[in-house]
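User: Second chain of the day. Same drill as before.
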Amino acid sequence: MSGVLTSAGKSGQAYLRAREEGRAALVGYLPVGYPDVPTSYRALAALCGDGDSPGVDLVEIGLPYSDPMMDGPVIQRAGTSALERGVRTRDVFGAIEAIAATGTPAVAMTYWNLVDHYGVDAFARDFANAGGCGLITPDLTPNEADDWMAASDAHGLDRIFLVAPSSSDERIVSTARACRGWVYATAVMGVTGARQSTSSAAPELVARLRDLAPDVLVGVGLGVSNGDQAAEVGAFADGVIVGSAFVRTLLAAEDAGRPDDLSALREVVADLAAGVRRSRES
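Assistant: Same format as last time:
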């Protein structure tokens, strides 16, 4: 079952550029619409760093959903607030444009019902026209994704499906084959929130992927929250995916009465960007 090749696609190019620099890529997640739509656009752009300090290599925009069964409490809280404040699926297109202005590529993570309700081909068309690279679809499996496969091919978008430690070898191979861009390896790093260490599940899952699909690009989540953990995960994965650690800074800023304050977010970005840059040091 070896020899499965996943096309790097548009989002995978961010991984390849990081690899050329001798490091793992940093993928940063924030939900659109929290604490409000305009501020979320600024926060997503802030993930990308500035001229003085590097940021993430790829932005992952979360689309808030009313039944976020796969999200931890930090992301659920932000997403629920965004929905209560009127965020809409179409706001992701403005987020893509805000990120594109920084020169950083972006994908979206979304529950499939949101895309299905919008219209699969229409969403793919509008997402591509806004400059998006592709979708991460945590609750959609390749064998149920005929409409998405067709729409993503028609509009040149990447397909990022998930594998987990419980995935069979056959499922890993078929998922890798269906992806374009990279494979999202979900490996729980502990209880949602602050984490003291990563678990053995992540390197073991990546090792299985390397064996079964040796040419695939692999991004690993969940649970990285600081630069040291980013360095640890970046030593064996192509990409380090961070979400809750970023969202937590926005929640804390709002709790402190300063919802527009992105300084803590920028500090966490800098720490994690430094972490992936020492991930391959000998």
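The chain has twelve helices and nine strands.

User: Great, on to the next one.
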